[in-house]
Design a protein that fits this description.
- The complex is a heterodimer of chains A (311) and B (99).
- In chain A, helix 6 runs antiparallel to helix 7 and helix 6 packs antiparallel against helix 10.
- Chain A is built from 13 helices and two strands.
- Helix content of chain A is 68%, strand content 2%.
- Chain A has a two-stranded antiparallel sheet with strand order 1-2.
- In chain A, strand 1 and strand 2 form a beta hairpin.
- Chain B is α+β, with helices and mostly antiparallel strands.
- Helix content of chain B is 16%, strand content 20%.
- In chain B, strands 2-1-3 form a three-stranded antiparallel beta sheet, covered by helices on one side.
- The termini of chain B are far apart.
- In chain B, 20% of the residues are buried.
- Classes of the chains: A mainly alpha (311), B alpha+beta (99).
- At the A-B interface, helix 4, helix 7 and helix 13 of A face strand 2 and helix 1 of B.
- The complex binds fe (ii) ion (2 copies).
- The site of one fe (ii) ion (FE2) has 5 residues of chain A, from helix 4 and helix 7.
């Protein structure tokens, strides 16, 4: 082990944060770039399914809330892109990797938002799962990532609460609204459970990531925690989670749950989900159509610089 | 100058925010912007959506110079062995008050 590596490992062991200009193993840098950029892309692509309902929100209150939430997600993407850049990859490279399909984003955003109730289900389940993942990341060993996560977690809690409130309102409404609520839960439950990633024994990056204290809990541990919480919360709605095998296990002090469809998960990750093409096309189109804005702003800045230099 | 202003890479800016009157500006993060005005406006949207600030400073990242992390130990060494810079270093009788 080279001396730099010893210093690095020692810092990790003592819970001292690693900062961008500190020496770090190439694999640590690679793992972080992969995880953080994937996280950033998820925040950005995640705006699309919800953005779909902004113009059709059922009241002004719901509309203002949804806009604020989607705006927060844009902010989360930007915190994370900036934090990723401190590792030496440029913003353009990161965005290019998303557009070329080289970089992934959370598979959950490849599902469609068919009814207004989906906005509620996303807030409750998708943001709920995200929070479960993100809270331990506030203690990630890489300083800029941990700091971005602290900011993000502060903002996430309203996301989940507004979602639950939407479902609660529907669950107390007409028969049709109740039905809509249950239908959204049925469609979003399993994809949300899959958000924690493949099972531990099939997750190649899990171990390294835990060893370097980027992640603090394994995929399966976080998934179980999420299921335990949701199994209780769903009762407040008077709704059901779509899992016949879900049952309290007194010995384990956890809920047992049914088989996860990992074939579906792999299909969606590999680009064959219901909305993969649409999502990526939307991102590429927005980037291409925004090119003139970037050029104009750069030209204006250049001109101003030029004239102030010549004064 | 115009050559730098390529559409592909707006410069990176570091953002500093004063959260309340009486406190100092603190580093909040960074962002890309074409010029200072845009950097300040983007910083408002990205970093102060919940009243986190009453004043924003931005500075292009390339203008920041930093001490070298590898040399931190020797660089800060001169402060390590000077306990006499702290009030507790001095032995004074208990009956001495208000000092
Ligand atoms: Fe988010
Ligand atoms: Fe969120």
């Amino acid at each position: 082990m080279i001396p730099e590596e010893k210093i690095f490992e020692d810092k990790i062991a003592r819970e001292v944060r690693i900062e961008p200009r500190d020496w770090m193993p190439a694999d640590y840098r690679k793992l972080l770039i992969r995880q953080m950029s994937q996280h950033a892309h998820s925040e950005i692509v995640g705006m699309l399914p919800e953005g779909n309902w902004i113009t059709r929100a059922p009241s002004l209150r719901r509309k203002a809330t949804l806009i604020a939430k989607v705006q927060d997600e844009a902010g989360h993407g930007l915190y994370l892109y900036s934090a990723t850049e401190t590792l030496g990859i440029t913003r353009e490279e990161t965005i290019d990797q998303l557009h070329s399909g080289k970089a992934k984003y959370s598979s959950i955003f490849n599902y469609p938002t068919l009814t207004w109730a989906d906005i509620g289900a996303i807030g409750w389940l998708v943001d709920g799962a995200a929070i479960m993942n993100q809270v331990p990341l506030c203690r990630a060993s890489f300083g800029p990532y941990a700091r971005a996560m602290v900011r993000i977690c502060k903002e996430e809690s309203f996301h989940q609460r507004q979602g639950f409130e939407i479902l609660l309102t529907l669950s107390r409404g007409s028969e049709a609204q109740k039905h809509m609520c249950q239908d959204a839960i049925n469609r979003w439950w399993w994809p949300s459970v899959m958000m924690f990633g493949p099972p531990d024994d099939a997750s190649p990056h899990n171990q390294k990531s835990m060893q370097w204290k980027i992640k603090r809990f394994s995929n399966d541990e976080l998934r179980q925690k999420f299921i335990d919480v949701c199994a209780e919360q769903v009762r407040v709605l008077g709704m059901k989670l779509p899992d016949d095998k879900m049952k309290w296990n007194e010995d384990e002090q956890h809920y047992d749950f049914g088989e996860i469809n990992w074939t579906e998960f792999r299909e969606v990750v590999n680009g064959n989900g219901p909305c993969n093409k649409e999502r990526l096309e939307a991102r590429k189109k927005a980037h291409a159509e925004g090119a003139w804005v970037r050029e104009a702003a750069a030209a204006y800045a250049g001109k101003k610089n030029h004239s102030s230099n010549n004064q | 100058m115009e050559k730098n202003a390529s559409s592909e890479s707006w410069p990176l800016w570091e953002v500093f925010i004063r959260t309340r009157q009486g406190l100092n500006h603190k580093h909040a993060g960074s962002l890309h912007a074409a010029d200072a005005q845009m950097a300040i406006e983007n910083a408002r949207d990205v970093y102060t959506r919940r009243n986190e600030g009453i004043s924003i400073w931005v500075v292009e990242s390339r203008h920041i110079h930093a001490s070298a992390p590898d040399e931190a130990a020797s660089f800060f060494d001169p402060a390590n062995d000077k306990v006499y810079r702290y009030p507790t270093f001095y032995n004074l009788p208990d009956e001495l008050k208000n000092i």
